[in-house]
Amino acid sequence: MKSHRLGGLVRLFLKLGFIGFGGPAAVIAMMEDEIVVRRRWLTREHYLDLVGATNLIPGPNSTEVAMHVGYERAGFRGLITAGSCFIMPAALMTGTLGWLYATYGTLPEVTPFLFGIKPAVIAIILGALWRLGKAAFKSVSLVPVAAGVLAALAMGVTPIAALLAGGILGLVWLRLYAKRASPTNLFGLLMPAWVWQASSQEVPLWKLGLFFLKVGSVLYGSGYVLVAFLEGDLVQNYQWLSQQQLLDAVAIGQVTPGPVLTTATFIGVLLGGAPGGALATLAIFLPSFVFVAILNPIIPKLRQSVVMGAFLDAINVSAVALMLFVTIRLGAGVLTGWQAWLVFGLAALAVFRYRISAAWLVAGSCALGLGLSLL
């Protein structure tokens, strides 16, 4: 039985690793569709608890959700299987692109293919937000919590600070002022080509490994804050990379599917060849495997506590608010022309009316975007 479950995890998370464009919010949306809606491995409420919990620990949110799901399905082996299968496709892609970058000084033009994927990703996220929001907003008392988190994010508060404040203040609000109401559905509200020269500096592998192990252990906010976090050390302190090389590396992590933190693979290849890429990948993701293994068994106990259950409720609506804020920000940058709006409209119709799988949406929008970019 457990081997059958491991096989299911391999198939699902390898697929998600190849089609997971759009960053953490998009990938979490794709996982919700596959895990909750199509396979029914988890209830939407429990899935939300896992998403909320990943925001409280360092590391890549979407990757840690994959690890949580693996643990739920097949224990520790499932955690390792799901996490590894999700990371592997992106790591191989970014590692290959890093080799091309270092060897030939140029990379393939991918902008036409991404032209259609980005608007479709916005529709995929909105579809998941609609479903997760209906599960998260259990009573009207949770609306002020989400509104407060959105306001804090709009004023420039960091995501982790907004989430923690939403959880703690939401706990106080729910315990002191709000009556616990019966569930109600309240969520009906709301590249160009690269030509660069790779670094020629030799970096000892042990230093490279220790650096990315530190990053994986303390990085909150996933890929959204990766540039600022790495710039201080890689560029300013150690001077291993130039400012432009770091931005180029992060761009590669963003245009490839899967976790943005596979940027570490690209940087590792630049600074230490294939061994450097493998070591950097292992080091940056290793802490997440440890954190999830420790946290996952605790989550059901937290849910059983009245006080911690209220905290989880507040964290969950805060996480939905964060996803909504990120989606609005992404949408403002992506939906800038009639072609993008056309792809978005068709993708939204496929998501909300026909419930098309994210895999087919990514493939179809890629082909449509390629055709529209030639007009």
Structure description:
This protein has 375 residues and is mainly alpha-helical. The chain has helices at residues 2-19, 24-38, 44-54, 61-104, 111-136, 143-154, 159-176, 205-218, 226-237, 243-255, 263-295, 299-304, 306-334, 338-352, 358-373. Helix 5 crosses helix 14. The N and C termini lie far apart (52 Å).
Keywords:
single chain; 375 residues; mainly alpha; 15 helices; 75% helix; globular
What's the story with the biggest beta sheet?
none
- Shape annotation: globular
Assembly category: single chain
How far is the first residue's CA from the last residue's CA? 52 Å
Q: Quick one: how many beta strands? A: 0
What is the CA-atom radius of gyration, in angstroms?
Answer: 20 Å
Given helix and strand content, the structural type is mainly alpha
Count of DSSP H/I helices: 15
Low-confidence stretches: 180-200
**Beta-strand content estimate:** under 5%
DSSP helix fraction: over 70%
Query: Mean pLDDT, as a whole number?
Result: 80
Order of helices and strands: HHHHHHHHHHHHHHH
